[in-house]
Amino acid sequence: MSADFQNWATSCQARIETFLEARLPAIDCVPERLHKAMRYSVLGGGKRVRPLLSFAAGELAGADVVRVTSVAAAVELIHAYSLVHDDLPCMDDDILRRGKPTCHVEFDEATALLTGDSLQTLAFEILAEKRLTDGPESQLEMIAHLALAAGSRGMAGGQAFDLDSVGKPLSLPELEYMHIHKTGALIRAAVMLGARCSSRLNDEQLGKLDHFAKCVGLAFQVVDDLLDTEATTATLGKTAGKDAENNKPTYVSILGISEARELAQKLQCDADQVLNSFGEGALRLRQVTDFIIKRKF
Amino acid sequence: MSADFQNWATSCQARIETFLEARLPAIDCVPERLHKAMRYSVLGGGKRVRPLLSFAAGELAGADVVRVTSVAAAVELIHAYSLVHDDLPCMDDDILRRGKPTCHVEFDEATALLTGDSLQTLAFEILAEKRLTDGPESQLEMIAHLALAAGSRGMAGGQAFDLDSVGKPLSLPELEYMHIHKTGALIRAAVMLGARCSSRLNDEQLGKLDHFAKCVGLAFQVVDDLLDTEATTATLGKTAGKDAENNKPTYVSILGISEARELAQKLQCDADQVLNSFGEGALRLRQVTDFIIKRKF
């Protein structure tokens, strides 16, 4: 990873942290326990991959970084809510997240439930409260886009499909279907919302960018599956080896390690090819893609 | 209840049912189990009190009924999501809702969790996807309004406050604080969003309407507490006597039955007084208020 990219990523991460720190209700704001749990679940951790994608796409589109920060925070809040609910006993029943006890372990199940609920709500509040696009109509489109990506035909739908397929053999197309929804939809939203903070890109360019985001979303998941097999709990900051333990179908269980690695590389090539048509403006997107593929946690 | 009001309420309920029936993803849309659970939790039941308030406020403001239907559906979906999550074992652990098994009993806990999550998301999708106000800026304000009403400083916050106060003695102001958030915020949003589908009411009138909605929201809760004490499970369609059983503070436990009845009447008087300043246009709001106070379930 180049020092230039490292500096840029660190500054984006600091920007999103500062925004979320200020925007999440304070710990002394009633109900204190809920607000403490919301802050616990969002602040001070995570790679912020989705925000990095929003910032990089925003740069490509020449968007105002203040607008992109709000959009990136909204996407990250949807991601954070999904993790809090995913970790609950009735879902993955996980006790470790980002190297800390999960929300329901640190607080309690009811608080974790309301925490996830409230983080989702806050995401939409942030997308509606300030002007984030050149015209208010496109901001409404943004909100509809995020809702579609997060809901029952997007992320939550992918999770439901995942639940239904535990212990079942999935074909590669079924596995792909699941991940396009479960993680892919929100990653695509991160890219598209970042770009749509400006109106510079035309529909054809936005279409290309969406194809790029689809490749990156799948690549992200393939790498996630590889890391779950190869990395340790300490490195990941979450329980490693859960998928195999839970008999969950993954790219590794279906393709094997070496073919899964090849697939990740192929998806990176496809993504890079799209970015080449954007020229130099796509530098950050290229770097974030590389970071996603080569990450070790 | 007059036949005229009964007809109007029935037609509003049919309108909201038709909208939700068409707008919720079909049962054969993947993931089928999640979509089945969403429809199960929303369709074919409930008094639709919040939609009735939206329609009545929309009539006062002379708003387009098609717009009001979307807004009313969004508010009802937030309400439905909160019921599904409230009924979960880690919250109220209830098995009966609207005369049927609760979502997690009929399906399973994980599905109920994702159902609530997805119903919330759908509410925001509906508020963003079509033009619902005279200008798009006011539609963004509507979305922010609903998010504020539903989130950690609104409905979800009231639920968290409720959790924190089980088994504790609450003062009347604390109980009021809890209900202003837990049920009041969404009832106010139902009224205000209905009215804001048109731009006819000025800020002073909207302020009055908000005061009306605050009175109705509290009255709704006082009556709810009375019904929980006095009615049977069969009439309510949900488990009666739960509050006393769970040692939850209620208007009845703090004030006693007869003072609680007086409070409900006083709140109705306050609400009616506000409506008088609107003249004949407020007929439906007056009738819905009366329906809320006098309901038996």
Question: Which key terms come to mind for this protein?
Answer:
homodimer; 297 residues; mainly alpha; Farnesyl Diphosphate Synthase; two-stranded antiparallel ribbon; 15 helices; 2 strands; globular
Q: Brief description of this entry?
A:
2 copies of one chain form a homodimer. With 297 residues, chain A is mainly α.
Provide structural commentary.
Two copies of one chain form a homodimer. In chain A, 72% of the residues lie in helices and 1% in strands. Chain A has 297 residues and is mostly helical. In chain A, strands 1-2 form a two-stranded antiparallel ribbon. The longest helix of chain A has 28 residues, at 203-230. At the A-B interface, helix 2, helix 6, helix 7 and helix 8 of A face helix 2, helix 6, helix 7 and helix 8 of B.
- Individual helix count of chain A: 15
Q: What is the count of distinct domains of chain A?
A: 1
Strand arrangement in the largest pleated sheet of chain A: 1-2
**Portion in strands of chain A:** under 5%
Instruction: Kindly report the oligomeric state of this protein.
Output: homodimer
Structural class of the secondary structure composition of chain A?
A: mainly alpha
Q: What Rg of chain A do the Cα atoms give? A: 18 Å
CATH architecture of chain A: Orthogonal Bundle
Mean pLDDT of chain A: 93
| Uncertain runs of chain A | none
Q: How would you name the CATH homologous superfamily of chain A?
A: Farnesyl Diphosphate Synthase
Number of strands of chain A: 2
Main beta-sheet annotation of chain A: 2 strands, antiparallel
* Gap from first CA to last CA of chain A: 14 Å
Helical proportion of chain A? over 70%
CATH fold-level name of chain A: Farnesyl Diphosphate Synthase
List the secondary-structure elements of chain A in sequence, H or E.
HHHHEEHHHHHHHHHHH
Shape of chain A: globular
